[in-house]
Every structure is written in structure tokens, then in C-alpha cells.
Design a protein that fits this description.
Oligomer: single chain
Order of helices and strands: EEEEHHHHHHEHE
Number of strands: 6
Length: 244
């Protein structure tokens, strides 16, 4: 991959979106405002320097983008040679797909914005605590100690930490994605897989956030959006749905 590439796809184009193209090579896009249009897969779901890491320097590393490109290439081979033909995968091929799906879970813009929202909520809560503690000396001392980073610093965020993450959220997302990729891929690899093929003349659709996690059994027990049915890969009743 050329180091000059600056527009990065947060949903893969040539290894993933191309699978949803029509006979002319176009994918059809439905926007939130209801507009529908056809375009080449390379034209959508991308942003300038989405995965570039600078760490405060004037330069920029494409190590994350290049790693994702390698992962996409391995998946594309398995999809072309096995999945699209309905053939069984070897353990290594299944591992390659697992890594691709783990990346598909973490790399979308929606995931990044979810992280941003969580840290913004944390910062708001810390400020609310600060205001609440102002009328209580013991609480003020605790808050001041927290601000100085004296409270179990290895397992907590100080207000300055939260501000730093928010200021560098894009790069923070890119770096942490590489750290958690092996663990998430292992979870996916260990799950039971079922590949469903659309009937002749019908197709599946995808989106800008195609990796969907649900806990059907917990939803039946506790109801949708309940604390006991919130999705997460750590739960045994978790089911993942991904159009390929």
C-alpha cells in the first residue's frame, strides 16, 4: 500500500462492500434523508486520515491502515475461495475471518463516536461530582486527590486523563483497536458459526455499522434495552449477525 494514501475506509471497500455490488459494480446507498444512489464501493465510508497516527508529531504513521489492509486481503481470499462457494474453511481460514470480523466490529466510525460519547459522559459526570463535592470538606479533599491522580492511578482516570483522551480520541481509537483485536478475534473464533446464503434472486444488505451484537435469550427474559440484556461479547448468550 502506498504511503501516500490518505483517505481510509472505515468499512472495507474492495474486500467487503464489493460483495454487495450489482452487475455493474455499483453499490446502492440509502442515506438517512431518504436519498438513494448508486456508486462505486471505493467512494463511500471513508475519511481523510481516519487511521493515521501522529502522536503529536508533524509526520504520520499508516501502520494501522496498512495492517487493516493485510487483514482485508486474507479475508478476501477466504471469501472468494470458500465462503462464496459454500465450502468448509480450515482452522487457519476461520482464524483469518475471525480477525477480519474483529476489525469490522471495532473500526467503523460509529464505534469511534460511541467511544467519544462515553468519555464525554464521563467528563460530564466528573464535573457533576466536583460541583456536588464543593459543599463537603471530606469530599473536596477526595476530589482534589483524584484530580492530582493520587487515587489508584493504575486503575482510574483523572479529569486530565479524560480531557487528553478526548483531545486525541481519533488516534486513541486507532491504537487501542490494535491492542484488543486478538482478544476479540479469539472470542469470535470460539463461537458457533452458521453461514446463511440468500435464495436465488435475493440479496443481503449491509450498512456503515454491519457488526450487530444481540442477546436474544436475555432480551426474552428481561426485555429490550434492560440492564440484564445489554449486548456484549463477554456474555455466553451473545449472538453476532454480520452480512458478508
Amino acid at each position: 500500500m502506498s504511503e501516500k494514501k490518505t483517505k481510509h475506509h472505515y468499512i472495507p471497500d474492495n474486500s467487503y462492500l464489493i460483495n454487495f455490488a450489482d452487475a455493474t459494480g455499483k453499490v446502492w446507498v440509502l442515506k438517512p434523508d431518504g436519498k438513494i444512489f448508486g456508486t462505486d464501493p471505493t467512494n463511500i465510508f471513508k475519511e481523510e486520515h481516519f487511521y493515521t497516527i501522529t502522536l503529536g508529531t508533524k509526520g504520520g504513521s499508516l501502520v494501522v491502515e496498512n495492517t487493516l489492509a493485510e487483514i482485508e486481503g486474507l479475508f478476501a481470499t477466504v471469501y472468494r475461495e470458500k465462503i462464496s462457494k459454500g465450502l468448509d474453511m480450515t482452522d487457519q481460514e476461520r482464524a483469518n475471518v475471525s480477525v477480519f470480523l474483529a476489525a469490522l466490529y471495532e473500526r467503523p466510525k460509529a464505534y469511534r463516536e460511541g467511544m467519544r460519547g462515553a468519555f464525554e459522559q464521563l467528563r460530564t459526570q466528573i464535573e457533576a461530582w466536583r460541583v456536588m463535592f464543593e459543599g463537603n470538606k471530606a469530599a473536596r479533599d477526595f476530589s482534589a486527590s483524584l484530580a492530582r491522580g493520587n487515587i489508584d492511578k493504575d486503575n482510574s482516570f483523572t479529569p486530565a486523563d479524560v480531557d487528553h483522551v478526548l483531545e486525541n480520541l481519533d488516534e486513541y481509537h486507532s491504537v487501542t483497536m490494535m491492542d484488543s483485536l486478538p482478544e476479540i478475534a479469539q472470542i469470535i473464533f470460539n463461537m458457533k458459526w452458521c453461514i446463511m446464503i440468500a435464495p436465488p434472486g435475493q440479496t443481503f444488505v449491509t450498512s456503515d455499522n454491519p457488526f450487530q451484537v444481540l442477546r436474544p435469550e436475555s432480551i426474552k427474559k428481561y426485555g429490550p434495552d434492560a440492564i440484564g440484556s445489554r449486548p456484549g461479547l463477554v456474555y455466553e448468550d451473545t449472538e453476532i449477525t454480520i452480512p458478508l
